[in-house]
Amino acid sequence: MTHDPTASLTELRDRLGVIADLTQASALMTWDQRTYLPPKGNTGRSRAIATIGRLRHDHMTDNGLADVLAALEAADLEGDDAALVRETRRDVDLATRLPRELVGRAAEQFSVAQTRWAAARADDDFASFAPVLRENLVVVREIAQAHAAGGDLYDALHDLYERDSTAAAVEAVFTPLRAELVELVGEIRERGRAIDVAPLLGAFDEGRQERFNVSVARAFGYDMEAGRLDRTTHPFASGIGRGDVRITTRYKSDDLRGALFPTLHEAGHGIYEQNLPAEHAGTPLGRYASLGVHESQSRLWENVVGRSLPFWEWAYPRLQETFPDRLGAVGLEAFHAAMNVVEPSLIRVEADEVTYHLHVMIRFELERALLDGSLEVDDLPGAWNERYEAYLGITPPDDRRGCLQDVHWAGGMIGYFPTYSLGTLLSAQLWEALRRDQGDVDDAMRRGEFGGILSWLIEHVHRHGRRYTPAELTRRATGAELSAEPYLRYAREKYGTLYGL
Amino acid sequence: MTHDPTASLTELRDRLGVIADLTQASALMTWDQRTYLPPKGNTGRSRAIATIGRLRHDHMTDNGLADVLAALEAADLEGDDAALVRETRRDVDLATRLPRELVGRAAEQFSVAQTRWAAARADDDFASFAPVLRENLVVVREIAQAHAAGGDLYDALHDLYERDSTAAAVEAVFTPLRAELVELVGEIRERGRAIDVAPLLGAFDEGRQERFNVSVARAFGYDMEAGRLDRTTHPFASGIGRGDVRITTRYKSDDLRGALFPTLHEAGHGIYEQNLPAEHAGTPLGRYASLGVHESQSRLWENVVGRSLPFWEWAYPRLQETFPDRLGAVGLEAFHAAMNVVEPSLIRVEADEVTYHLHVMIRFELERALLDGSLEVDDLPGAWNERYEAYLGITPPDDRRGCLQDVHWAGGMIGYFPTYSLGTLLSAQLWEALRRDQGDVDDAMRRGEFGGILSWLIEHVHRHGRRYTPAELTRRATGAELSAEPYLRYAREKYGTLYGL
C-alpha cells in the first residue's frame, strides 16, 4: 500500500471537519435549550440532539475514517501531524467503544433529564427528579462499562473529563488538601478578624452590574465580537464554533457577588476557547486539553486575578462610579475583604476560594457512591445534607440549595466534579510559574493591563490545544507535576494577610 | 418481494425523522445567525450550515430511502399513508435532481451572502453586495437548470416555493390586478378624503410596543410557550421544530406601524406552523402546503383582521392605555384611518394593503430579468429606482431603502416574491369563505374573541399540512380556484368606505 501522507491528512481533516460541524450543531442546540428554547420545544429538541449525536458517532466510527487513520499511523509523521493522528485515535477509540444505540439513547436521556432537573430545581422538588436521576445512572453505568473494559467504572468516566487521572490520584491530592483546608478554615474562624460583607448585600441594578461585569471580562481578554453573555439558571461556557464562544451568568437580587464571579469565571473559560489554535480548528488538536486545564483558566481569572487587591485597585473606582450610592463611602480594603470573606455556604459556584474544595469533595464522594450503588438516589438529599453539616457545618434548608443545585448529574456527567479542584490547584501553580517568568504583575493589574497575563497563558496553555496531555502541559508550563502546594501557599499567604493570622 | 407496508411505513417515518432533525439543526443555526451569533462566528457557521445541508441531502438521496419509498409506492396505500408517500416522493425527487456538491456550495454561498447583505444594507453599500449577488445568480441558475430539465428556469424555481404555479399563471393574475389597483390608487389620490397619519408618527417606547404587540399576537392564537419574539433587521418566522416556532420583528423609532404589523404578520405565519398536524410532525405531511398558503395566514391576521375596524374597536382602548399621552386624545376612527392610509412608500413590508402588490410586481419583474441575464446586477439599483418611479411615483433616496431592503435574493431565493401577492389574494378568498361559513365575525372581533376565526383556519388550512396541493386546498376551503376577485371586492369596499369614494 502506498501512502501519501499529505492526501491522507487532507482527507482526515475533511472528515474531522464534518464531525466538528455536527458538534457545532449539537452545541448550539444545547446552548439554545438552556437559554431561549420555548418550553414546548424541549421534547423535539432532545430527540434532535440525540439524532445529531448518533450521526456524529456514525462519522467517528466510519470505516473510511478508520482506514485513513490507520494509514497515517503507519506513516512516519512528526510534530503536529503526529499529534493530530494520536488525538484523533483517542477520540475514535472512545467513540468506537460505545454502541451507536447507546449514544443516541444517552444523548436523549441526558437532554430530557436536564429539562426535568431545571423544573425540579425551580420547584424544589427532588422527588420529581429522582426517577430521572436513576435512569441517568443506568445509562452512565453502561457508558462506564463500555469504556472500563473490566476496570474501575469511576476511573473510566473520570478519564473522559480529566485524561489519565484516576479516583486514587484525586484522593491523593484531596486528602492532604482537606486536612490543610480544615485547619485554615479553623484558624480563620478562631483567630481571624471579623470581615463585614454588608457592602455587597442588597439590591444592585442588574443592567449596571452587567455592563460593569462585561467591561471587566473584556479587559481580561474575552472578545465579545466572538462571544456573548446570556442568562441561565446555571452559568456555563460553551465553545460552539470558531469565533463563537458563549458564556452565561445569573443574577442574585441581593448579592453583588452572585453575577460578578460567575461572569469572570465563565469569561476565563471563554478566553481559553477563543485562543485555542486557529490552525487546528475543527480537529481534536484545536480543542481544550482537559476540563481541569479548562478550569485552571476560569479559576485564574475569577479568583487569582478577580479577587486580588491589585486588580481591585484598578476596578474598584469603576465599580464605585457604577454604584455611587451603594459603594461611594466604602473603602477599597473593606470592599476587597468583603469580596474574599471565608464562610461556609451552600452554593458551590458562589463559594469562597478556601471552602470551595469542600463542596467539590462532597460531590466526589457522593457521585462515587451513587455510581457503585452504595448510595440510593432516594437517600441522596439526606446524604448531601449530612456531608454539608459535617464538612461545612451548615445544612441546606431545601434541595434547591442542596443536591439540586448543579446540572452535572442531570447531564449524565459523573466523574466531572474533581476537575474543578484539580483546575483550581493548577491555576495557582500556573500563577507561580507566570510570576517566575514575568516578575511581579501586580503593577500591570493596578493599571488595568492584563495583556501580559493573557500572553503568558496563550503561550503556555491556550495555543497548544490538545497537543500535550494535561500532565505534560502542566510540566512544560510550570516545570513540575500538578500539586496542591502552590495553591496552599497562595491561600495561606492571601488569607493569612486578610484575616490577620 | 414481500411488502409489509406497516414496517416500511415505520422505516420511512424513522428515516424522515432523521432528516427532520437535521432540518431542525439547520433552521436553528440559520435563526441564530440572524439573531444572536457573534460576528466572528459567521464564517464557521456558514460552513457548518453547508455541512448539515450536505448530510441532509445524503439522507434524502440515500438508497435505503429510495428502496422503502419504491416498495410503498407499489403497495396499495390510502389516505394519509398514500399522501405521505406521494409527498416524500416529491421531496426525494427534488433532492435527487441536485448534485451533492451543489447543495453544500449553495448553502454556504447563500449563508455567506446573507451576512454580506446585512452589512451592505447597514452601510447602504450596494457595490459591496453586487459581486455576491452575481455569485448567487450563478448558483441559482445551476439549481434552476437541475430542476427545469430543459424547461423554463424561472418556473422551475418558482415551483419550489409555490407548487404547480408558473410565471405565466402569476402574470395572468398580476395583469388584471395591476390595472385595478392602479385605478383604485388613482381614485384615492384624486377623490379620496385626506387622512392624517400624524397620530402614528414619532417616538413610542419600544418595551411598551412589544408588550402590546405580543398581547395581540397571543389573542390571535400565537403560543409563546411554543414560540419567541426576537429582533432582526428583516422580520421573519421560522418553524424550527415541533413546539418551537419563532418570529422576529424590528422597531422603527418614528412610526408605530413599523413593529406592529410585522409582528402580527409573522405571528400569522407562526400560528400556521404551530397548528400543523402533530401526528405528521417530522414528515413532509406535517409541513406547510406552500409559501402562498403560508402567506395567506400572515396576511389574514396582519391585514384582514389586524387592520380592520372591528378588531381595533377591541384593541384600540388597550393601545390607548399603553400610550395615554400619545393616543388618549385620538379617536378610534381617526386612528383606524391612519393605520390604513394608502400612499406610495418605499418599504414593501411596511406598505399599505393596496400598494403592496406593486412592490411585489416590481421584484417579480426584476428577478426574472436578473435570472435570464437581461438585467445586469450592476444595473439593478437603477432599474429598481426606475420602476418605483413608474409604479409608485417615488424614487428611493438610497439603496438601503431600495434594492437592498429584502433578504431574499441574498438568500438565493428567486421565484419567491410572487407568493406574497398570491397569498394575499388567498387571504381575502379564505376570509369570504370563512364569513360564508360562520356568518358575521365582526362582533366576535369587537369582543377580542378570535377563536372562531382560528378554528376555521385550523379546520380548513392548518391541520391539512401538505395533504393537498395549494390548488386543491384552495378549492376545498373556498369552493373555487384562486382568484383576485375576492381581494379586489375586499379592497374596493374597505377603501371606498375609508376614503369616501
Polypeptide structure, described:
The structure is a homodimer of 501-residue chains. Chain A folds into 2 domains: 5-153; 167-499, Orthogonal Bundle (Neurolysin, domain 3). Chain A is mainly α. The first copy, chain A, has 21 helices and 3 strands. The mean pLDDT of chain A is 96. A 3-stranded mixed β-sheet of chain A has the order 1-3-2. The relative contact order of chain A is 0.12. At the A-B interface, helix 1, helix 2 and strand 3 of A face helix 1, helix 2 and strand 3 of B.
Give the arrangement of secondary structure elements:
The structure is a homodimer of 501-residue chains.
Chain A lengths: L4 H31 L6 H19 L2 H12 L4 H18 L3 H24 L2 H23 L4 H9 L5 H25 L14 H15 L6 E5 L5 E5 L2 E6 L7 H18 L16 H15 L3 H14 L1 H4 L4 H8 L16 H17 L7 H13 L25 H21 L3 H5 L4 H10 L9 H9 L6 H15 L2
Parallel strand pairs in A: 1-3
Antiparallel strand pairs in A: 2-3
Helix pairs in contact in A: 1-2, 1-3, 2-5, 3-4, 5-6, 6-7, 8-21, 9-10, 9-12, 10-11, 11-17, 12-14, 15-16, 17-21
Topology of chain A as a string of helices (H) and strands (E): HHHHHHHHHEEEHHHHHHHHHHHH
Radius of gyration of chain A: 23 Å
By oligomeric state, this entry counts as homodimer
Count of β-strands of chain A: 3
CATH topology of the largest domain in chain A: Neurolysin, domain 3
Shape of chain A: globular
What average pLDDT do the residues of chain A reach?
96
Helix run count of chain A:
21
Strands of the widest sheet of chain A, in order across it, are 1-3-2
Name of the level-1 CATH class of the largest domain in chain A: Mainly Alpha
**Total domains of chain A:** 2
Largest interface: A-B, 40 and 40 residues
CATH architecture of the largest domain in chain A: Orthogonal Bundle
